[in-house]
Design a protein that fits this description.
224 residues; 16% strand; single chain; 7-stranded mixed beta sheet; alpha/beta
């Protein structure tokens, strides 16, 4: 799937995404609604049976992935986080979801352990940590080893970032032979109306964080 085809599909999926995910509250550094819509659209296209998240923090994206799994018939969400700092908070938040496993530990090891157990199921992945270095390379390699990896999305892939360089290198090393790659840049994805409700929420709860939805709200890399 190329970037132009993907762009055409985004507005068609906006109502479905907002209906399912509008109740997922904003968390500082959490993904924007636009980024959530991208994941929603990919799931609709690829129908992943397994969704993997590496880097949970306060679980805004995890909740969105759980809604995606529910709406598109995925079997399960596996969410891995290295730091235990927000573990109690996240476990409480995720109690209402029956389709998620949340674990503290090294994502590279956790993903590697899944490869044999999911067999030939279709896999989609969202990476929000690690974002560079050896750990990121190992994670990308492990994701490429699933028999049916449908998509890999990485957060914070803005121009000039170390994450973008790591993402490009991982693509060249493990996915380039049969996958497309593109980035959601502001110039190529100009419709920002999807973030309007999120901005209203943030103005009440986190007014000091509203700058996070400025130029960098178009900042994910997609392999599919």
């Amino acid at each position: 799937m190329n970037q132009e085809d993907f762009k055409v599909l985004l507005p068609k999926n906006m109502n479905g995404y907002m209906s399912a995910c509008s109740g997922v509250k904003y968390e500082p550094k959490g993904i924007s609604n636009f980024e959530g819509l991208c994941l929603w659209t990919l799931a609709g296209l690829c129908n992943p049976q397994i969704i993997i998240e590496s880097g949970v923090s306060k679980a805004r994206s995890t909740e969105i992935l759980c809604q995606i799994a529910k709406n598109f018939g995925s079997d399960h969400v596996y969410a891995f986080e290295k730091s235990p700092d927000f573990e109690a908070y996240v476990r409480q938040k995720l109690r209402k979801y029956q389709n998620v496993t949340y674990e503290i530990g090294n994502s590279c090891d956790k993903v590697s352990a899944l490869i044999g157990s999911v067999k030939n199921k279709r896999v989609g992945a969202f990476i929000d940590g690690p974002k560079k270095g050896k750990a990121y390379d190992v994670l990308m390699k492990n994701l490429s080893l699933f028999p049916q990896t449908e998509f890999v999305v990485t957060h914070d892939c803005y121009v000039g970032s170390p994450t973008r360089e790591a993402f490009l290198e991982g693509y060249r090393n493990y996915f380039a032979d049969k996958y497309d790659l593109f980035f959601t840049e502001q110039s190529t994805f100009p419709d920002r109306s999807i973030n309007a409700s999120l901005l209203r929420e943030m103005s009440k709860t986190h007014p000091d964080k509203m700058h996070a939805l400025d130029d960098n709200c178009y900042r994910i890399g997609i392999i599919t």
